[in-house]
Amino acid sequence: MERAYAAGIDIIDIPLGVFDPDIARERALNREALLISLSNALTVFPRWSVVSTLDAGEEPASSTRAGIDHLLAAGILPLVELAAPPAGRPASEIGNLFEQLAGSWRSRKATIKPLQPLIDVTTPLAPLKSKGVLKGLFDKVYEQKLLAASDLRRSLRVRQIEQSFESAGL
User: Fold this and answer.
1) Average pLDDT of the segment spanning 75-84
2) What is the pLDDT of residue 51?
3) Model-level pTM?
4) 8 Å CB contact between 68 and 101
5) Which of 11, 63, 83, 164 could anchor a disulfide with 20, C-beta 3.0 to 4.6 Å?
6) With helix as H, strand as E and coil as C, how does the chain read?
7) The predicted structure's pLDDT at residue 47
8) CB–CB of 50/38 below 8 Å?
9) Band (74; pLDDT cuts 50, 70, 90)
């Protein structure tokens, strides 16, 4: 994790797939190892930079909701992906799941803007319509700010590691 962060990775996604331990066991997924990896990533990456993707329709909606709440409580940004047509699940149930996801992001004040392009592609959530020319201009300024901040963090990460090695005589 530390090497990935030092290399400049700003956001990491460790997909859980399913949150329900029984379903994970049936599919031979090592859920506990994934949760440990997520916890370890939290010690290295900044707040809301650790992401975990859950698959909508792969488990009961109540389990996915519990997974969303658990991840948010831990400081992990949950994403819900509609990977395949959910067999036997009513569209309203899946819709309610995505509404709950968006509401949970708002209530926890999760920062999702850096992930907006990914969210637009992997979820059925519709982006808000642009409110005019100024909104577009502000979005471009924000994107440039993110790029500059990312470059600065990357430079500081590598420089601090190099200085640490030099001071240790390595």
Assistant:
1) 84
2) 92
3) 0.71
4) yes
5) 63
6) CHHHHHCCCCCEECCCECCCHHHHHHCCCCHHHHHHHHHHHHHHCCCCCEEEEEECCCCCHHHHHHHHHHHHHHCCEEEEECCCCCCCCCHHHHHHHHHHHHHHHHHHCCCCHHHHHHHHHHCCCCCCCCCCHHHHHHHHHHHHHHHHHHHHHHHHHHHHHHHHHHHCCC
7) 83
8) yes
9) very high
